[in-house]
Design a protein that fits this description.
- By secondary structure, the chain is an alpha/beta fold.
- The protein contains 13 helices and 21 strands.
- It has helices at about 15-25, 40-45, 50-70, 80-105, 150-155, 160, 180-190, 210-220, 310-325, 355-365, 375-380, 410-420, 425-430; strands at about 5-10, 30-35, 110-115, 115-120, 125, 130-140, 140-145, 170-175, 195-200, 225-230, 235-240, 245, 250-255, 255-260, 265, 300, 340-345, 350-355, 365-375, 385-395, 400-405.
- The strands form five sheets. Strands 1, 2, 3, 4, 5, 6 and 16 form a seven-stranded mixed sheet that branches.
Length: about 450
């Protein structure tokens, strides 16, 4: 660290990864500036996983109310205020933004508000002000992608706007089948909207285990979501009462709101990457090595802008590892094997490790253990929905290499499973554990017979 520059580190982006890198580096004594043109907190806190999950919680009460009747509760005149929910959500996001500001302030980092543009290996321009640093870290995240379909960009909302709607749509069409599409389909359906989920594959959630995909498709249908599979949108037209959405087979759907949930792209516009000699790939992601270093030696990148694993905890881990390496004297980078993930659809999905096709490709012979059951709660509530659990085991070593679940509390359960998989647990280790009874989680340690 040298006084040759204004700062030892300039971070562009005050999201989860950037703030973690900035405050850890500052904690090591580095002079740190964090540049943000929007609200500190980034995608996850301001317009992503946090507000989205608050809405998921809200929507889930509808199902709880339905189930309550089976347990003797009589709930008459139940109604919901969308405006009250959004106001409560906004208040919580304001609180969290304040926390992020204080995290930087208390760590001794300087927050510079404005949009940053890299003008050289050690310089960043914000408005008319130029700042220099020994190292620059790009942590600008991503934004919703919009396919080039006539009328879609002009007429569709994305996950950004879906969190701030003044009124709940009576009928919404969600285009896409990834985790964002499924989560918002569940949110709107839970609050009473008619939901069409349109996607071009035969099953939702491409990239997830096929058994999980089949199970969630059935569960979504049971929850009242209309799945329109194997279809793409040809055109979207606004009408006096809403929209006309023309599918590739000529079918026309007429929702009063259209949401595009067709993936995300790295935020690189206006960053000056080309001028700074920073290479990007065909998707526009900043290319980095295992130490998060770009093609320009003094410039690094973490989080969704690198398009490695686009999860908030991964961005945080990358930012922390970067700060440890360059300012804490602890050279380390993170591994990307066995990163757990969850989809907060209704019901939840969670997994860690390999899917069945991946396991066969990597290990050859495998054993698959699975369980489908109607949760105890559903026996009295009358809900037909079943929970699905799956263990994938390497046949020769008996190492557990994949764990998958669809059902209530899947994410909470999978966090513990991820520890076991990360440690290299074998099926015999699972078998030796005494289950917690009665619970859904105990199924993971009581499955004894592999699938034929």
């Amino acid at each position: 660290m040298t006084s040759q520059f204004d700062f030892d580190l300039i971070v562009i982006g005050a999201g989860s990864g950037g703030v973690r890198a900035g405050r850890i580096a500052a904690g090591y004594g580095a002079r740190v500036a964090v540049i943000e043109g929007d609200r500190p907190g980034g995608t996850c806190v301001i317009r992503g996983c946090v507000p989205k999950k608050l809405l998921v919680y809200g929507a889930s009460f509808a199902g709880e109310a339905e189930d309550a009747a089976g347990f003797g509760w009589q709930l008459d005149g139940l109604r919901h205020s969308w405006a009250q929910l959004i106001a409560a959500k906004d208040k919580e996001i304001d609180r969290l933004e304040g926390i992020y500001r204080n995290l930087l302030k208390n760590a001794g980092a300087t927050l510079i508000e404005g949009w940053g543009k890299i003008t050289g290996p050690h310089s960043v321009l914000v408005g008319t002000d130029s700042y220099t640093a020994e190292r620059i870290l790009i942590a600008t995240g991503g934004h919703p992608a919009m396919p080039a379909i006539p009328g879609l960009a002009e007429n569709a909302i994305t996950s950004n706007e879906a969190l701030d709607l003044k009124q709940r749509p009576n009928h919404i069409l969600v285009y896409g089948s990834g985790y964002i599409a499924l989560e918002f389909a569940g949110i709107f359906a839970g609050f009473g909207s008619q939901v069409d989920l349109v996607y071009r594959a035969d099953l939702p959630l491409r990239g997830f285990d096929d058994d999980v995909r089949r199970h969630i498709a059935e569960a979504l249908t049971d929850r009242g979501i209309n799945l329109v599979s194997g279809r793409t949108i040809s055109e979207v037209k606004q009408t006096d009462t809403g929209y006309e959405v023309v599918l590739d087979n000529g079918r026309v759907l007429t929702p009063d709101k259209v949401m595009a949930a067709t993936g995300r792209s790295p935020n690189i516009e206006g960053l000056g990457l080309q001028e700074a000699g920073i290479k990007t790939n065909e998707r526009g992601a900043v290319m980095v090595d295992e130490w998060s270093q770009t093609s320009t030696a003094s410039i690094y990148a973490v989080g969704d802008v690198t398009d490695r694993i686009n999860l908030t905890p991964v961005a945080i881990a990358e930012g922390h590892a970067f700060a440890d390496t360059h300012f804490g004297g602890i050279a380390r980078h993170i591994g990307y094997d066995n990163v757990p993930s969850a989809v907060f659809s209704q019901p939840n999905i969670a997994s860690v490790g390999l899917t069945e096709p991946q396991a066969i490709s990597e290990y050859g012979k495998i054993d698959v253990f699975e369980s489908r059951f109607r949760a105890m709660k559903n026996t009295l509530s009358g809900r037909p929905e079943k929970t699905y659990m799956k263990l994938i085991v390497a046949k020769d070593s008996q190492k557990v290499i994949g764990v998958h679940m669809v059902g209530p509390d899947a994410a909470e359960i999978m966090q513990g499973m991820a520890i076991a998989v990360k440690m290299g647990a074998k099926k015999s280790d699972f078998d030796a554990v005494i289950g917690i009874h009665p619970s859904a989680a105990e199924e993971f340690v009581t499955m004894r017979t592999p699938r034929p």
